[in-house]
């Protein structure tokens, strides 16, 4: 208990010492990106201009667009070039905040990782802060890659880690970061990884699921079925559904796991909804 309190107070002291608003902005950008990861990067940036304003102020728009491109280019340069230790020696200052971004920048989840990286860059852009440096490190979406990324982050002497996204990757780096008192703001939804210097900032499904199941029980529902993605997040949802159903005296009678990468769930939905039997009964009428 004492150790836990020490870690919590150490983290709060870190936030007071560093740029609290910018750390929060970074994390909020990540959460918003996860919630709407199907959006285009242009939608996240929000730099589109109406046709009328372009016609009325064409010159100003061109100048502003050029400035935005230059600034965004500088942000990318700061985040990507810091892989070179020689550059780090020449530009880092005492009061600057070094953030290790552990994201799946390659592999099957690279779209999410790169969208999150863009979000971090835009958080810096919107805050107009030159005292934070991002170290984007590729976890490759697996624990082995996460450990290698964590080791690189330590070499860069980062103050804080944002990421990884997946719980198994968080488990893989939590011990090594705890030994060095480097706090982790994980983007996972698995509460099992939290504690001892790991703080969760992902979407937590507990409350919405419990609310839905409780409402169904109040409406007289006796049976519950669910279509669940076949991944780590789906496993968390399944466990919460089982516990919430038992608490509300509802039978969790039917479940089906689907491939989240699939674009056609029609066969799974037919099976889940007893479509063949219902269709045959309809034809017999």
UniProtKB/TrEMBL annotation:
Q: Which InterPro entries match?
A: BCAA_transport, Leu-bd, Peripla_BP_I
What are the protein's UniProt keywords?
Answer: Signal
Does Signal show up as a keyword for this record? yes
Keyword set includes Signal: yes
Signal peptide start-end: none
Provide an example Pfam family for this protein: Peripla_BP_6
Locate the Leucine-binding protein domain: which residues? Answer: 97-272
User: Which PANTHER family does the annotation name?
Assistant: LEUCINE-SPECIFIC-BINDING PROTEIN, PERIPLASMIC BINDING PROTEIN OF ABC TRANSPORTER FOR NATURAL AMINO ACIDS
| Protein name, UniProt field | Leucine-binding protein domain-containing protein
Question: Which organism encodes this protein?
Answer: marine metagenome
């Amino acid at each position: 208990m004492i150790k836990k309190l020490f870690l919590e107070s150490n983290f709060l002291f870190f936030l007071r010492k560093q740029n609290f608003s910018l750390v929060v902005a970074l994390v909020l950008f990540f959460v918003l990106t996860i919630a709407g990861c199907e959006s285009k990067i242009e939608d996240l940036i929000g730099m589109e201009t109406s046709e009328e304003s372009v016609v009325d102020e064409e010159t100003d728009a061109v100048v502003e667009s050029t400035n935005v491109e230059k600034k965004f280019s500088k942000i990318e340069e700061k985040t990507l070039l810091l892989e070179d230790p020689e550059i780090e020696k020449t530009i880092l200052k005492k009061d600057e905040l070094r953030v290790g971004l552990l994201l799946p920048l390659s592999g099957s989840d690279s779209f999410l990782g790169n969208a999150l990286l863009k979000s971090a860059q835009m958080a810096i852009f919107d805050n107009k802060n030159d005292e934070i440096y991002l170290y984007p490190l590729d976890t490759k979406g697996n624990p082995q890659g996460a450990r290698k990324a964590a080791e690189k982050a330590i070499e860069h002497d980062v103050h804080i880690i944002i990421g990884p996204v997946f719980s198994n990757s968080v488990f893989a780096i939590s011990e090594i970061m705890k030994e060095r008192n480097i706090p982790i703001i994980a983007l996972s939804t698995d509460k099992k990884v939290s504690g001892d210097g790991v703080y969760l900032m992902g979407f937590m499904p507990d409350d919405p699921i419990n609310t839905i199941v409780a409402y169904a029980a109040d409406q007289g529902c006796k049976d519950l079925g669910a279509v669940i993605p076949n991944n780590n997040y789906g496993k968390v949802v399944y466990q919460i559904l089982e516990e919430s159903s038992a608490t509300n005296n509802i039978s969790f009678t039917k479940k089906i796991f689907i491939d989240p990468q699939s674009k056609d769930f029609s066969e799974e939905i037919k099976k889940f909804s007893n479509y063949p039997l219902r269709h045959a009964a309809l034809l017999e009428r």
